[in-house]
Amino acid sequence: MPTLTSSPELARRTRLAGLLYLVIILAGLGAEIGLRGPLIDLDDAAGTARAILAAPGRFRLAIAADLVMALCDAGVAILLYLVFRAVAPGLALSAMVFRLIQTVLIATSLMALLMAWLVLTRADPPTGAATLALAFLDLHAHGYDLGLVFFGVNSLMMGALVWRSGLFAPAFGVGLSVAGLVYLVGSGLRLFAPDWSAAFTPAYGLTILAETAFCLRLLFQRSPA
Q: Fewer CB within 10 Å: C terminus or N terminus of the chain?
């Protein structure tokens, strides 16, 4: 079974992937939890509209952060393919494709956020604007979850690649595999059994832990002496 051998080029790619991964984590959590999330209540169209219109800069900054996240995600997909293709070329290529599909879906779903903003700021008369905007916000959330289905599959593949690489501790592979299962189950519940979704939400803490640990491991990859 092929394994990775550390080299200056591999170390550079690994560290760059780790840096972009860190930007993804910070931008993604910042946009969803710190910026946009507190403004949106999918059970209150009018209240959500008021909150967004009262903080336009914050809402648009969240969109910008998501765009940065998507751009970095494409870079990470390519870099991780270059790092792990020596382990299993077909599996590494498949992982890259699934991650890029996720990136495209998440980037495309940003159009729903922009439509919500346009509806709220340009509707004349404003009757029904809040309800329509909330529908676009809900569409964005579902688009995000659809993207995470593909990312869940990517995470399972990455877990196998990391486990087989010989360069990283197997625990990182296990962590990514667990994260992949959480994404698949969580998105499945959001899309097909939303009433059960809230109870599963704490499990996403495992994905943050696993991905942050792997990100830091990539970021601090040492070049061979």
A: C
The arithmetic mean of pLDDT across residues 106-132, rounded, is 86
Quick one: pLDDT at residue 127?
Answer: 62
Q: Phi first, then psi: give them for residue 62, nearest 5 degrees.
A: -65, -40
* CB contact at 8 A, 102 and 24: no
CA-CA distances (angstroms) from residue 144 to 90, 99, 129?
Answer: 26, 13, 23
Q: Is the pLDDT of residue 155 over 80?
A: yes
Q: Report d(CA 106, CA 147) in Å as an integer.
A: 6
**Of 144, 47, 131, residue with least CA distance to 103:** 144
Angle made by CA atoms 179, 202, 69, in degrees to the nearest 5: 55
The answer to whether the beta carbons of residues 105 and 118 sit under 8 Å apart is no
Rounded distance between C-alpha atoms, residue 60 and residue 31, angstroms: 10
Tens-digit pLDDT profile for residues 13-66:
999 999 999 999 999 999 989 899 999 998 899 899 999 999 999 999 999 999
Please list, residue by residue across 171-192, b when 16 or more beta carbons sit within 10 angstroms of its beta carbon and e when fewer do. Answer: ebbebbbbbbbbbbebbbbbee
Residue ranges covered by each domain of the chain: 8-219
For the entire predicted model, the pTM comes to 0.91
